[in-house]
Amino acid sequence: MTDYSNPAEFEQQQEYDERVIEIARVAKVVKGGRRFNFRVTVVAGDNRGSVGVGIGKANAVPDAMRKATERARRNMHKVVTLGSTIPHLTLGKVAGARVMLKPASPGTGVIAGGGVRAVQHVRHVGAGDEIVHHLPGRVAHGRLPRADEVARAHVGGGGRNGEHPAVAGERDGVEMKLDGV
Fold first, then answer.
1. 153 or 74: which carries more pLDDT confidence?
2. Computed from CA positions of residues 81, 134, 141, 31, in that sequence, does the dihedral angle turn out positive or negative?
3. Spatial CA neighbour of 151 closest among 85, 78, 95
4. Helix, strand or coil, per DSSP, at residue 118
5. What is the mean pLDDT of the chain?
6. Residue 59 pLDDT more than 90?
7. Which phi and psi angles does 90 have, rounded to 5°?
8. For the chain, where do the domains classified as CATH 3.30.230.10 start and end?
9. 147-159 vs 115-123: helix axis angle to the nearest 10?
């Protein structure tokens, strides 16, 4: 329970933007029948470039949301940006999900869908300029990757973006020509 009489705690509570990506009911078959639980995926960001994804599991949706929010705030990662976009093309991979992040020219906005769009909106106030392609994954039995896997792949790919001099150094000193630099 949040104590709103303490202004410092209230300010800390208000600085994160959170979005629910997925609420799923999962079943476990036991001797007496099925036991149902809920899995909630939440993405949290500070609108200044940091973003985190959290998953919470519980018997009730509100408890699962609280757990997911706590984990998302704890797992925040800084995503490097160049103006309103990312510095270069990158690929994020988690489990069976593969996401390609491409820089876009100013004014393009976010071209993405589902959980990836939610990650973008909590990362930037203006949502930035970025193109995200959800690539075909390698998941068993033809099922699509879960929303949390795609969101974590996006956060992981964005976290691998380095700043311009650092990336050029990793590429044998070959300088890249970036628009706006």
1. 74
2. positive
3. 95
4. helix
5. 76
6. yes
7. -145, 160
8. 78-170
9. 40
Dist. CA 78–CA 158, nearest whole Å: 8
Segment among 5-14, 16-25, 50-59, 97-106 with least mean pLDDT: 5-14
Type of residue found at 153: A
Protein fold of 78-170: Ribosomal Protein S5; domain 2 (3.30.230)
- CB count within 10 Å of CB 39 equals 18
**All CATH 3.30.160.20 domain ranges in the chain, comma separated:** 7-74
pLDDT in tens, 98-128: 888 888 888 888 888 777 777 777 776 555 7
Gap between the Cα atoms of 109 and 102, Å rounded: 12
**Token code pair at residue 102:** 């491409």
Six token digits for residue 33: 């029948």
pLDDT, tens only, 133-162: 777 766 666 667 777 778 888 777 665 565
Residue in this structure with the two tokens 């309103």, named with its chain if needed: 84
- According to CATH, the topology of domain 7-74 is Double Stranded RNA Binding Domain (3.30.160)
Query: Quick one: tokens of 103?
Result: 């820089």
